[in-house]
Write a structure and sequence with these properties.
- Helix content is about 40%, strand content about 15%.
- By secondary structure, it is an alpha/beta fold.
- A 5-stranded mixed sheet has the order 6-4-9-12-11, sandwiched between helices. A 4-stranded mixed sheet has the order 1-3-2-14, with helices on both faces.
- A hairpin with a 3-residue loop joins strand 11 and strand 12.
Length: about 450
């Protein structure tokens, strides 16, 4: 349920057919992964389309206990079993998982949905934007003890670039990196005698970000949301340092993420074998382990979580690309709906501003942007209803661009226009002191003129 003025209706169009000879040969593979790879060239690669293959109940492609296999692309293997109604219900469930669910649409429209109808993490995902900036930062608070070497350029090209290439349909991305020395977390960790280590509890983690963010400086001049990924090498006096969860158990990745901000990973350095080891110690960062954590956090920031998948579903790992084709479609569905809602809100706010200020001047270029935004959002809604995901998303992006250009046009700044009562309140204190002597002088001149006209004229 949405609010009264917001409603989203979903419609699925299902077509049934028999498999072709090539598909039969692909389905004869030994494993589901091999079958998915063989079926990929035979499928429809259109954004938003899904192909599901119903295999016999006794098929060896699906392991025992798994009724559905979802591949890396836009296909799934579904085990037949039970009645036809049960199979149709399973197919609908697969379709929702691979396209969009009610919770994902509610998260996209979180600004319009009452708090009681949202999941606790619904407002944790990144808002739709035309671009994002990703900043990788290495924090070395103790450079006298550690000389840290990280191959960030090679790691970005190897692990991050394939993911961003796939996400380029969603938005534009820029990546930069920096090294900050003497940057501390701002929270003193607690020493644990039993483990001879330092601990950061879950309730202290929110206080870690603010002191560090002041040193980053990445969001000061950015037009787009900035995603911060920090690798923190603890100082020698606080090593090793471990992060605890809410139950007091150590976090396996020794990292945490902050919604709509980024993530921090603590990278502990092995203590030297000899206490008399020369300083600083040289540290080579294992970038594969670090990037595995950061990419998992990036998925969480975009709302690509696999926790909602039913237990009988077997999901194939996306590999180096970071996300499957159907997950990309999942993201495009949500961002398209969010863009349409954003345009509606922006144009409504603009209309309310124009109604409130009667003497505002609307230039032709502003009016053209408004008309273009309305036409684009109508096109996006139409394409979305037809299932043309790529065209709908592109139209929604154009609508967002035009609506923001119109709303933020310098000629529409409300500070340039004042109500009449504010004009009187501003100008009366300025002109009244000057007007009083002028009016008194004019009154005196009028009186003297009248007196001269009343005096009789002397005749010789």
């Amino acid at each position: 349920m949405m609010e009264v003025r917001t409603s989203v209706t979903s419609r699925y169009e299902m077509l049934y057919r028999s498999t072709t000879g090539q598909e039969e040969a692909a389905l004869a593979a030994a494993t589901a992964r091999e079958a998915d790879a063989a079926l990929h060239p035979l499928q429809d690669t259109t954004l938003g389309s899904l192909t599901m293959y119903v295999v016999p109940e006794t098929s060896s492609l699906l392991p025992q206990g798994a009724n559905v296999y979802v591949g890396k692309h836009r296909s799934a293997l579904v085990r037949a079993g039970g009645s036809l109604a049960a199979l149709q219900a399973r197919l609908r469930e697969v379709t929702q998982v691979m396209s969009f669910t009610a919770s994902s649409i509610a998260a996209a429209l979180s600004d319009r949905v009452p708090d009681g109808q949202l999941r606790p993490d619904a407002r944790r995902y990144l808002k739709s934007s035309l671009g994002y900036e990703i900043t990788f930062s290495l924090l070395n608070p103790d450079p006298k003890s550690h000389t840290v070497d990280w191959d960030i350029e090679g790691a970005v090209n190897r692990y991050v670039k394939p993911v961003l290439d796939k996400l380029s349909l969603v938005a534009n991305f820029s990546v930069d990196s920096q090294i900050l020395y003497y940057a501390v977390l701002g929270v003193t960790p607690r020493y644990d005698k039993e483990s001879s280590s330092f601990l950061l509890s879950a309730h202290s983690l929110p206080h870690v970000i603010n002191p560090v963010e002041a040193r980053l400086g990445s969001s000061a001049a950015s037009l787009y949301p900035v995603l911060n990924f920090l690798l923190y090498v603890p100082e020698r006096s606080h090593s090793p340092l471990y992060i605890q969860d809410k139950d007091g158990a150590p976090v396996s990745t020794n990292a945490f993420h902050s919604p709509r901000w980024g993530g921090i990973m603590v990278y502990n350095v092995e203590a030297p074998a000899s206490p008399q080891a020369s300083l600083p110690l040289h540290v080579d960062v294992d970038m594969a382990r670090v990037m595995e954590v950061f990419l998992a956090q990036l998925r969480l920031l975009f709302g690509l979580s696999r926790e909602e998948v039913p237990p009988e579903f077997l999901l194939e790992s996306p590999g180096n690309e970071g996300l499957a084709d159907w997950e990309l479609d999942h993201l495009l569905w949500a961002h398209t709906v969010e863009n349409i809602a954003t345009v509606s809100t922006t144009l409504t706010s603009l209309a309310q501003l124009l109604d409130k200020i009667g003497n505002i001047v609307i230039k032709d270029d502003v009016a053209s942007e408004v008309y273009r935004a309305v036409a684009s959002v109508q096109s996006a809604v139409t394409e979305l209803s037809l299932g043309h995901l790529h065209a709908a998303f592109q139209a929604s992006k154009e609508a967002v661009t035009s609506s923001e250009r119109a709303f933020f046009d310098p000629s529409l700044l409300h500070l340039l226009y004042f109500p009449d009562d504010q004009k009187f309140a501003i100008y009366i204190p300025l002109f009244l002191p000057m007007a009083v002597p002028i009016l008194l002088s004019l009154a005196k001149i009028v009186r003297e003129t009248r007196q001269r006209t009343k005096e009789p004229t002397k005749m010789d």
